[in-house]
């Protein structure tokens, strides 16, 4: 059953062109994003230890994202691409974080829904990479990641439904989908996941 909402607007064709023109830079950013996604799930475990219904799924996502990081790193090793010395700030994530509610319960809901929207955008972009890669092995790799990210987008919404009414979850999710669409449309095009 589909739980999350589709993204409001598709990525621009220029984004795919930028990624394919400097794929090594994309790999570096992708590796950073997988580490951050793992860290996000695990930080929710640390911040919300009383939310026992979702801790197993958060741990599962944290481990899976770390495995994705390992897989991306292996691709980088084969290509002779090093990890970046430091993880730069992500303007996309920063823009989303500025819109989080400050109340405890509202912020908890927002963190889950922002994670869903980010994973859904990641799925859309991994599909674009898979569909446009000439290298069949890399296309298969990004197809696998696309499926996984789409699943994570659903899981975060499912987690929210443990604690909030479906009306509240989907009203707020709609807000996030619309805002994410505006943010993604105004970002500088670069060879990065966001």
SSE diagram, text form:
Elements: H1 13-21, H2 23-47, H3 55-79, H4 91-97, H5 104-132, H6 136-161, H7 166-186
Give structural attributes.
194 residues; Ferritin; mainly alpha
Characterization of this structure:
The chain is mainly alpha-helical. The protein has one domain: Ferritin (Up-down Bundle), CATH 1.20.1260. It contains seven helices and no strands. Helix 5 packs antiparallel against helix 6 and helix 5 packs across helix 7. The longest helix is centred in the middle third of the chain and has 29 residues. It is globular.
Give a nutshell description of this structure:
With 194 residues, the protein is an all-alpha fold.
Low-confidence stretches: none
Could you spell the SSE succession in H and E letters?
HHHHHHH
Q: What's the architecture, going by CATH?
A: Up-down Bundle
* Structural class estimated from helices and strands: mainly alpha
Largest sheet: none
How many separate helices?
Answer: 7
Q: Look at the structure and name the CATH superfamily.
A: Ferritin, core subunit, four-helix bundle
What is the helix content? over 70%
Could you tell me the mean pLDDT? Answer: 95
Number of E-type strands: 0
CATH fold-level topology: Ferritin
CATH class membership: Mainly Alpha
How many domains make up the 3D coordinates?
1
Radius of gyration: 16 Å
SS strand fraction:
under 5%
End-to-end span in angstroms? Answer: 27 Å
Please tell me what the overall shape is. Answer: globular
């Amino acid at each position: 059953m589909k739980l999350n909402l589709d993204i409001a607007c598709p990525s621009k064709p220029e984004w795919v062109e930028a990624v394919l023109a400097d794929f090594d830079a994309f790999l570096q950013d992708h590796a950073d994003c997988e580490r951050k996604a793992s860290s996000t799930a695990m930080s929710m475990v640390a911040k919300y230890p009383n939310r026992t219904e979702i801790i197993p799924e958060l741990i599962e996502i944290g481990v899976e994202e770390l495995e994705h990081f390992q897989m991306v790193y292996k691709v980088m090793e084969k290509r002779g691409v090093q990890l970046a010395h430091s993880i730069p700030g992500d303007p996309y994530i920063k823009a989303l974080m500025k819109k989080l509610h400050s109340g405890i319960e509202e912020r908890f809901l927002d963190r889950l829904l922002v994670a869903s929207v980010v994973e859904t955008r990641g799925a859309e972009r991994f599909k674009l990479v898979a569909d446009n890669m000439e290298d069949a092995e890399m296309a298969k790799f990004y197809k696998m990641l696309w499926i996984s990210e789409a699943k994570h987008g659903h899981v975060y919404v499912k987690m929210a439904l443990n604690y909030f009414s479906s009306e509240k979850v989907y009203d707020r999710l709609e807000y996030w989908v619309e805002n994410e669409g505006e943010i993604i449309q105004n970002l500088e095009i670069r060879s990065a996941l966001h």
